[in-house]
Amino acid sequence: MSTPWQRTAEGANLLGPDGSLAVTIFEEITTLANRHGAINLGQGFPDEDGPAELGRIAQDAIANGNNQYAPGKGMPDLRAAVAEHQERFYGLTPDPETEIIITTGATEAIASAILSLTGPGDEVLTFEPFYDSYGAMIGLSGAKHTTAALLAPDFMPDLATLEDGFSPRTKMVIVNNPHNPTGAMFPVEVLSEVVRLAIKYDAVILTDEVYEHLTFGPRHIPVATLPGAADRTLTVSSAGKTFSFTGWKIGWLSGPARLVAAARTVKQFLTYSSGTPFQTAIAAGLRMDESFFTDAAATLRRKRDILSEGLRAAGLDVLPSQGTYFINADTAGLGITDATGLARRLPGLIGVAAIPVPVFCHPDGARRTRSLLRFAFCKKEELLEQAAGRLATLKDRM
Ligand SMILES: Cc1ncc(COP(=O)(O)O)c(C=O)c1O
């Protein structure tokens, strides 16, 4: 399996799958959406801010002079709040001193873990489609990116062949649950098989659980809670998704002290420390009443349903989404097998923008997913209704 992310001959930049410098299709679609005044359901960020009280806490923190570097591993109060959150929701008890660091979004947690623990000669296994930053970071680390296919319509891996993705060189396996871009949530059988194989091949598990609270039925199962997992699992999460403050870029990484310490050696030189006044606010957010978390998921579920309805009315096959901001739709029923081409035309055609799923894949996976589009539904209900209306005109305009 090839990796689409490679160094240039000068070793300076990353090259994307088509050989161009790594300006992503996200930017291209956003530019097209802006040019056509389209409703942008491409990138996953909410169009409404999170709880006003958290905004006020951040403003107070700025007004009260909390504007200098936070400690490198994060403010003690936020590390304590992350530990309390892990215990309250999952019964996990990480030590805030040695087993948690605060990062600049989940992105930096992922980068720090991959860059500190893997390198040339190692393999890193992800499911495919995969969140794009894994591929880029594995490319930067110099490790080889191997994949295990998630199969539509429910985007589960084939457990009978999952072991084929592992080898004695597998240094890390990355799990993303709930899963972007598909909205799949992996049941305990899948997660346990990943853990079993990680133990067998002595691999670290990096689990990205940024959508842990944005689920529409199934209970979220943190990998670290499974038997045998805790000692080899680094868990990533982020305030961006849970609290609808994606621009604050506050994330965290937790796991055994030796792995967290390794990641910190890289985090230290990526950013050193992360947004001081926002850390204070997110500590309060993590301590909010349980109803905040369940209400946020229920609101998002309604949004998912509005968009699903619109996609169905457009003649698309809607694939199940059990969590995240995203839902996939299959364009094959409309006779379209090139979702990437369609994604480039959609903003001009009907004034809606979406992301083609093949961008989250290597070439083989891109062929498997070539008719799929990813739509984000973390937008105001009125906007989603409007998008649904526009989508309903798709068949007539093609
Ligand atoms: C699966 C996944 N991981 C990580 C991130 C990045 O999170 P953050 O904004 O906290 O860096 C995202 C954002 O879209 C995501 O979807």
Notes on the structure:
- The structure is a single chain.
- The protein starts with 5 loop residues before the first strand and ends with a helix.
- It is built from 14 helices and 16 strands.
- Helices cover 40% and strands 17% of the residues.
- The longest helix is centred in the last third of the chain and has 24 residues, at 290-313.
- A hairpin with a 4-residue loop joins strand 6 and strand 7.
- With 398 residues, the protein is an alpha/beta fold.
- The protein folds into two domains: 6-49 and 292-397, Alpha-Beta Complex (Aspartate Aminotransferase, domain 1), CATH 3.90.1150.10; 52-290, 3-Layer(aba) Sandwich (Aspartate Aminotransferase, domain 2), CATH 3.40.640.10.
- Pyridoxal-5'-phosphate is lined by residues 44, 105-107, 131, 176, 180, 208, 210, 238, 240, 246, 249, 251.
- Pfam families: Aminotran_1_2.
- GO terms for molecular function: kynurenine-oxoglutarate transaminase activity; pyridoxal phosphate binding.
- Its cofactor is pyridoxal 5'-phosphate.
- Residues 39-391 form the Aminotransferase class I/classII large domain.
